[in-house]
Every structure is written in structure tokens, then in C-alpha cells.
Amino acid sequence: MSLQRLTLSFAIVALSGTSYAHPSAGIVVDDQGQVFFTDNGGNRASLWKIDAEGKATRLSSAGWHWLALDAKGQFAEDNLKKWFEQRITMNFGRVGLPDSHAVLLQADGAPFVVDREGNLYWGNLDISRLSSEGKVTLPFPDLKATADKLGGIKGLAIGAEGSLYMTCPSAVLKTAPDGKITTLVHPIRLSDAELDLPAGTPDEYKPFLRGLAVDARGIVYAAATGAHCVVQITPDGRDTVVLKSEKPWSPTGVAVHRGDVYVLEYTNANGSPNDGWRPRVRKLQADGTVTMMFTAE
Question: What is the pLDDT at residue 93?
């Protein structure tokens, strides 16, 4: 598929107002330890902030599926609108933060992330890279066939060394600066986790990984939405369950900050919106302590 057709397809999805049948995976933490997450549960849809003291504040009434922090504030709202109208990118929402150069970006069409140089990556099979000047490239030409075989890309994260990490339903992939794609782990087998996925889900898609984050040591934390748990994956590919969610909760998104892991969870995350999607945020500290930070009423 050409770059023009690829970006056009994302734009059409966003224009059509298609409702994606899964709860949000959007959660990020800034340098001050403030947690931001999206709630797309029906009439409650909102973008939230939890400050360093634990106070939760609603920032806007728009809660999209994915969320990223543009730490340098390089993507201006006018440019994002222009590029979307030109069919260069999918649709991104932008929310400025008071007393900060950083901004929050939201999207529905595909998972996305902003790296430390200010490049924005997004995609479901191919990955597109957008510079702050509006240049779009396809940096990983060999990715599409692999991602398609593994069930598509469900989450993106940037590692400390600048590598792009991706979740597929039962795999974590990692890219190198030269564009080479490596498989960190596949398949993931969680012997002590109870699977909870819709009937007919292929075995090769279990435990259905979604959001992920990578710490300074290169350790990946991924939301195993279909297994009610968060999985830790070491650089040599060993996976361990580090946090479990009691039914009906399941993790959908993960963020890391100074050794702590922040987890966005939803009720009925593998069901339809009619089952009721209600979010909460928990923090897993390095010593194993788990703290409830937010629960929607």
C-alpha cells in the first residue's frame, strides 16, 4: 500500500466517526508525576488528570481511545487540523496543559506515541512517522506482513534508548534505529492467568495484549486485557504476571514513571459498551505495593 493510500485510510476512518468496540487504553505520566488518562465509557467520556497529591480533575469532556504526551509541544493544533484535512494523518485532538510547554494528544483511529525527538508514530499494520514539520514516512517497510500475521498492532511505546515497542495480541515487537524488527516475545503463555475473551477468539490471539510501557531498564509492562493482568517482559523475553485484576476489571493501558507502574483498567473490557465500561487507575510500586488512585462512580 502506498503512503498516500495508507494515510487516506486512517483519515477516512476518523472522518466516518466509527465507534471502536473497546474501552480506552490511554494513560500517560508527565515529568511532575501527574497522571493523565482517557475515559470513553458512554456519557461519561472525559480526559482526566490525577495530580501528584492524588486529586482527580476532569480536563475535558472528550475521552478518546489513545493518548500520548507531546512533551515539547511541537504539534500545533492548526497544523494537526491541516494535515488531517489534507489526508496526511489521522485525526488528532490536542489539549494544552497550564504552565507547561507539554500538550496531550488524543486519537481514535490507531495506537500512537510521540518519541523524545518529537516524532509521532501511529498505525495498525504499517507504522507511519510524522515529524513536527509535517513530513510523513514509513520507517519500517518490513513490518506490515509480520504485524498482519500476529493480529495487528494494539499498542505502541518508546523505550529509553529510542526504540519503538509494539504489542500484538500475543507478542511484543521491538524496532532498531536501522528499521530492523525483532520479536521480544511470542507467544505469551500465562499458565496462572484466567483467560476471559469473547467466544471464537483464536488461540493465537490470547491473552490479547493492548497498552504497554517500557522502563529505563528496557523492561516492558503490557496490559493483558484478555487475562485480567499486567505482564512484565524482560529484555531477554521472559514474561511474568506482576499485577492481577479481579473480575470484572481488566487492564487496558500502562504507563511507567520512576519505577512505578500506572495501570488503567476497565470493567467488562472484553465486552460491549452495553455491558458497562467503568475505569479505574491503580499504581504498582517497585516494592510491590498497589495503590488505588481513581475509580469512576
Answer: 95
Residue 197 structural domain: 3-295
Cα 209 to Cα 115: distance, rounded to the nearest angstrom: 21
Q: How far apart are CA 121 and CA 105, in angstroms?
A: 12
pLDDT at 215: 97
Pair 228, 193: CB distance under 8 Å = yes
> What is the layout of strands, in order, in the sheet containing 239-244?
209-214, 220-224, 229-233, 239-244
Which residue has 488461540 as its cell numbers?
203
At residue 190, φ and ψ (nearest 5 deg) are -105, 90
Read off the C-alpha cell for 38. 482517557
Q: Report the CATH number at residue 195.
A: 2.120.10.30
For residue 17, the model assigns a pLDDT of 34
Rounded to two decimals, the pTM is: 0.92
First to last CA, the chain: 45
Nearest to 105 by CA among 26, 189, 214: 26
Please report which confidence band the pLDDT of residue 138 belongs to, taking 50, 70 and 90 as the band edges. very high
Q: What is the mean pLDDT of residues 160-186?
A: 94
Contact 89, 47 (CB under 8 A): no
Bridge pairing between strands 209-214 and 220-224? antiparallel
As to burial, measured by CB atoms within 10 angstroms (0-12 exposed, 13-18 middle, 19+ buried), residue 40 is buried
CA angle (100, 106, 107) in 5-degree steps: 160
Cα-based distances in Å from 81 to 16, 89, 153, 167: 16, 9, 25, 28
Q: Looking at residue 144, what is its pLDDT? A: 95
Q: What does the alpha-carbon distance between residue 284 and residue 295 come to, in Å, rounded to a whole number?
A: 16
CA distances from 84 to 87, 119, 174 (A): 5, 16, 28
